[in-house]
């Protein structure tokens, strides 16, 4: 069965995506900084895997720890190897750098360093550790695609994911695949999903530190996609969600109108199902909606 590593999986989007994958029969390696909430999530994930049609619960390895720790990152990859390999790496763990968020003139520099360490340095460290396993993955079928990058909106909202998703948004160029001057883009390895934010591309007051870290993650992802054409590299803005992270960022906001993280998951699954080309994607958390940050 396919194997995924998901960081920050004890709550929010990480936990919701892990539950969906477990329900599909994926084996999982999950982490979070707090052992108690992570083990609670792991029990839920194993239960979700009961109905995956494999006769047993999904194998779930829960490793508490901090992604900034190189030893912890190595342990996550080693656990995936023991499960049989690695097909999907989800860099979801994140910190704000300041809670609540503040203007750049008042932003603590130590907080900015922490945001860069968790949101940029640690994901690359985990990618580097996992690269041999990801390159060996054969989960995603090969296909020809001249344009290796996409910039698209994922449908969201509801289990049926009502908005359509075009896995080949540049289809008009595909007819040239294989010609002498347009070598085909062949992806045969695994996938990397980096969770980004609209704050990476928009200038929102008080979101400067966090947004700068996510912007760096976006650029890092784009370069990685060029350097590793055999992998799928997706960096996704999930839109506004009702999460603890957002509550910490803006405690004065009323969270009741924000969609739950589970509403974003169908769009993320479409990336896997469609073997989507590497690129930046925006998941609209409500039908026809527009994400903000």
**What assembly state would you assign to the polypeptide chains in this entry?**
single chain
Which structural class should the secondary elements be placed in? alpha/beta
Counting H and I runs of at least 4 residues, what is the number of helices? 7
Q: Please tally the β strands and state the result.
A: 8
Radius of gyration (Å): 18 Å
* Low-confidence runs: 142-147, 156-187, 285-293
What is the succession of H and E elements? EHEHEHEHEEHEHHE
Average pLDDT metric: 82
Question: Could you name the CATH topology of the domain at 86-283?
Answer: Rossmann fold
Distance between the termini: 34 Å
Which shape, going by the Cα principal axes?
globular
Keywords: Oxidoreductase
Family: Belongs to the short-chain dehydrogenases/reductases (SDR) family.
GO molecular function: oxidoreductase activity
Organism: Streptomyces lydicamycinicus
What do you see in this structure?
It comes from Streptomyces lydicamycinicus. Pfam families: adh_short. Residues 151-182 are annotated as: Disordered. Belongs to the short-chain dehydrogenases/reductases (SDR) family. One of its GO terms (molecular function) is oxidoreductase activity. The chain has a domain at 86-283: Rossmann fold (3-Layer(aba) Sandwich). With 293 residues, the protein is an alpha/beta fold. The protein has helices spanning 12-23, 35-48, 70-83, 109-136, 208-227, 244-249, 265-274, and strands at 3-6, 27-32, 60-64, 88-91, 150-154, 191-195, 232-237, 279-283. The protein has an eight-stranded parallel β-sheet with strand order 3-2-1-4-6-7-8-5, sandwiched between helices. 46% of the residues are buried. It starts with a strand and ends in a 10-residue tail after the last strand. α1 (12-23) links the parallel β1 and β2. The chain has seven helices and eight strands.
């Amino acid at each position: 069965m396919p194997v995924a590593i998901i960081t920050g999986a004890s709550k929010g989007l990480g936990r919701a995506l892990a539950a969906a994958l477990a329900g599909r029969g994926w084996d999982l390696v999950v982490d979070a900084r707090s052992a108690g909430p992570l083990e609670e999530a792991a029990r839920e994930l194993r239960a979700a895997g009961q109905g995956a049609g494999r006769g047993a619960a999904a194998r779930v390895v829960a490793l508490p720890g901090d992604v900034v720790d190189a030893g912890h990152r190595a342990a996550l990859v080693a656990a995936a190897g023991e499960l049989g390999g690695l097909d999907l790496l989800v860099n979801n763990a994140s910190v704000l750098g300041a809670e609540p968020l503040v203007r750049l003139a008042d932003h603590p520099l130590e907080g900015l360093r922490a945001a860069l360490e968790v949101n940029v340095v640690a994901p690359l460290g985990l990618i580097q550790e996992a690269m041999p396993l990801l390159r060996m993955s054969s989960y995603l079928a090969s296909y020809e695609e001249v344009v290796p990058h996409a910039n698209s909106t994922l449908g969201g909202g509801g289990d049926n994911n009502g908005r359509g998703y075009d896995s080949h948004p540049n289809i008009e160029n595909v007819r040239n695949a294989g010609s002498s001057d347009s070598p085909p883009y062949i992806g045969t390895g695994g996938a990397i999903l980096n969770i980004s934010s609209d704050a990476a591309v928009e200038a929102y007051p008080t979101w400067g530190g966090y947004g700068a870290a996510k912007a760096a993650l976006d650029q890092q992802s784009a370069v990685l996609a060029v350097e590793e054409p055999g992998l799928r590299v997706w960096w996704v803005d999930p839109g506004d969600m009702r999460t603890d992270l957002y509550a910490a960022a803006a405690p004065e906001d009323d969270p009741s109108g924000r969609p739950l993280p589970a509403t974003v998951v169908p769009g993320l699954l479409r990336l896997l199902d469609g073997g989507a080309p590497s690129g930046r994607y925006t998941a609209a958390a409500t039908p026809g909606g527009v994400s903000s940050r």
